[in-house]
Design a protein that fits this description.
The structure is a single chain. Helices cover about 25% and strands about 25% of the residues. About 50% of the residues are buried.
């Protein structure tokens, strides 16, 4: 589970738990069930009750996708076995409750890496499929489901189905936010690597146009690419950024000492963020100072720096419970994508955020490649921007509603795994295969066994 749960007595005498997403903005109470076997998972599904149930992994979805007010939440982290590794062919069969962190520990010494990782390695395989996660390599490798060869799905009728790519059930489940059933196991195709280090190039971009030009011209040279943007910069510096790109370092790029143990997986860990922090810690002034320092300390251009995998992909994982930095009110992570050819829409949105002075120090821009098959999968070819904003910012809801309208008008969409506030009337415009998803879900689960706060809010 995650730290964002607290046991509370239910008025009916049942032991319920207050559950939130990583953003900690919309807590709801549910009955928490922790199956340890497939049989216990099937029994939990049968015993979900009138309010249904939803599977949950490590609690890193930012919004309300893994919450179920008044119903059941199935903590799947007890199903965490790695069953088989094909070290020659590069595949792994594992339980859905296995984390990407665990897979890295097991696979890196064998010369393999997970095909896609988001900004945290504390995501379960089931969650990675359910949210169809993407990473810094989408422009090359697509999202997680593109590398899934098969998975076993426990459906509402109690059956365990083997699901393969190219079938409607696969496409509904990949990005389907757990609403087609409970993923039990998955077989994943892996990425070969020679070392556990990254070769990283870093450069500064003076503004948003400079950044987009650099990305468009040279992204094809890199497997991984991401840009941190200063969303408090204004005027001629609007959208200034630090661009970081790289690939897995080959063995011959390592100095003599690390070459002795090239596939070791080392991580850094700092003290946990305190459970109680002063409110108002993240203001425009403090975030503006951080952004200025972060931009200035970045090199104008540097090539071939060796970094640990954890530093390149997951710097925030080194600070346990970093989400507490935003205080009791939590934060909203807003991520959208607009297609290529809609650069003016991206410019307008960045300018509006900058003029609004939203105190965001975690803002990243990436480029997406080809769309993935999931009907509710988020990535489409284009530009995606993600930013964190303290939830208590005055007028934030209305402001984000306006951005939603702009995104939808540009033919874009918001990421459901990070959402806790999208208005349902915009969903069909953003996800044109929504009706297909609803139809299949109604056939597969006519009594609504699998449900969540997200599905009720958006009418999924």
């Amino acid at each position: 589970m995650s730290a964002d749960t607290d046991s509370v007595p239910d008025v009916l005498g049942l032991d319920h738990t207050t559950v939130t997403g990583w953003g900690r903005t919309a807590p709801t109470a549910a009955r928490l069930i922790r199956p340890q076997t497939y049989e216990e998972a099937a029994a939990a599904v049968r015993d979900c009750g009138a309010r249904g149930g939803i599977a949950r992994g490590l609690g890193r979805a930012y919004g309300d996708a893994a919450q179920n007010a008044g119903g059941s939440v199935l903590d799947m982290t007890g199903l965490d076995r790695v069953h088989a590794i094909d070290a020659d062919g590069g595949t792994v069969l594992c339980d859905a409750g296995v984390s990407l962190h665990r897979l890295m520990e097991v696979l890196l010494p064998l010369g393999w890496f997970v095909p896609v990782t988001p900004g945290t390695r504390y995501v379960t395989v089931g969650g990675a499929i359910g949210a169809d996660i993407h990473g810094k390599n989408h422009h090359v490798s697509g999202s997680f489901s593109r590398h899934v060869l098969a998975f076993e799905l426990l459906t509402a009728d109690g059956e365990i189905r083997t699901v393969i790519p190219g079938t409607p059930l696969f496409d509904a489940t990949a990005g389907g936010m757990g609403l087609t059933g409970v993923i039990l196991t998955a077989t994943i195709r892996l990425q070969p690597v020679e070392t556990s280090l990254m070769s990283v190039d870093t450069e500064r971009a003076t503004d948003l146009d400079d950044l987009m030009a650099r990305l468009a011209a040279t992204d094809h040279r890199y497997r991984y690419s991401v840009a941190w943007i200063d969303l408090l910069a204004r005027g001629a510096a609007t959208g200034r950024a630090v661009l970081t790109r790289g690939d897995h370092a080959p063995l011959d790029a390592l100095p003599a000492r690390p070459r002795r143990d090239p596939l070791s997986f080392r991580t850094s860990r700092f003290p946990s963020a305190p459970s109680v922090l002063p409110e108002g810690l993240l203001t425009r002034t403090t975030v503006g100072l951080f952004n200025e320092l972060w931009y200035r300390k970045a090199p104008r251009a540097r090539s071939g720096q060796l970094q640990r995998i954890s530093a390149f992909f997951h710097p925030l994982d080194g600070v346990p419970h970093w989400n507490r930095v935003y205080g009791r009110g939590g934060f909203v992570q807003y991520q959208f994508v607009v297609g290529y050819g809609q650069e003016d829409a991206l410019r307008r949105i960045v300018r509006r955020i900058s003029e609004r002075r939203c105190p965001s120090f975690l803002a990243v821009l990436k480029r997406f490649g080809e769309s993935d098959p999931g009907w509710l999968s988020f990535p489409v070819p284009g530009w995606t921007l993600a930013l964190d904003i303290p939830a208590g910012l005055p007028g934030l809801g209305a402001f984000l509603d306006e951005l939603d309208e702009e995104v939808a008008t540009a033919g874009g969409r918001v990421y459901l795994a990070k959402d806790a506030r999208l208005r349902p009337e915009l969903l069909a415009a953003m996800y044109p295969r929504l009706d297909e998803f609803r139809t299949l879900r109604a056939e597969l689960d006519p009594h609504g066994v699998f449900t969540s706060d997200l599905s009720r809010r958006l009418g999924l």
